[in-house]
Task: structure prediction
Amino acid sequence: MVGAAKVMAVVKANAYGHGAVPIAHVLSDVGVSGFCVALAKEAEELIAADISEPILHLGRISASSIDLYQYGQVRCSINSVEDINILEEYGSEKAPFIAHLKIDTGMGRLGIKMDNDCSILQKLAESKSIRVEAVYSHFSTADENDTEYRDWQLDQFRKVIKLANDILPDTNYFHIANSAGILNCPESHFNMVRPGISLYGVSPTGMPHNKLKPVMKMKAPVILVKKMKAGDSVGYNRLYIAKKNETIAILQAGYADGIPTDFSNSGGVELNGCIYPIIGKISMDLIAINFGEDTINEGDEAVVWGGDHENNQLEYISKKYSKIPYEFLTGLSSRVKRNLINE
Result:
């Protein structure tokens, strides 16, 4: 619960790279009310793993996957009149589809435009094949310091809530708050929220949050410690040339694991509480670091992100490379082993 609001945990994109099934089981154990996914196959994966909480499919309805919604666990999102028509075609009064109606209050992606919401609500009120469990929307700028557009969207959503209470009085939930809304806009919580990246201990606002602790430590083992002479080069295209005799370490990780090539001759890793520079080009499977005069041994583990040093936090790294934390988390490949540690 967030205050009085129920939590629908967003576990799309393999739980932002963390592993959807194990994360869903952990969240289920601590009492979340349900889960949000983007794709039908993501919902199917959770069901196959014996997740029993409600699952909200945020994406479009397709006639080819209509069976997914027929048993009630998976709630569909109504994003258009066409979605309603599909549900009407396959639904029945005895077994109505449970739906969440999405209103586009200004995000400009999925959802029914505000100027159509009254007629859509009336159409749904008359439907015998659809039960609208919730009405929702999505913030566009809740992660920004300037709150003018966020507040405008919130006002638009309040208008939708009023209409829904009048036309669809049996609607149970209203939700618009994503992670940024949860952290920055308590008045947007209503009775349901959809945390995404904040579930994984990363702030959506660009700065670490004192109430969030990173869930993921992306690690890479040291597989070789190697002496270099002045003039020796490291990696493809000789991007790094030693200016003096030095010792380097080779880590078993690369861009095939999700380490961006932007880190070439630029990034750093945390090891034994220190940040060591990445040298040379990031390879498919290997990274080189320079550890100066310190002692590093084969088998030591370097933290690529998610460590204790502030320069190793994804918020800092993202800002440095003009990216967003989501890209790093969801970019991890399937060959990266996920070790779940419950502390």
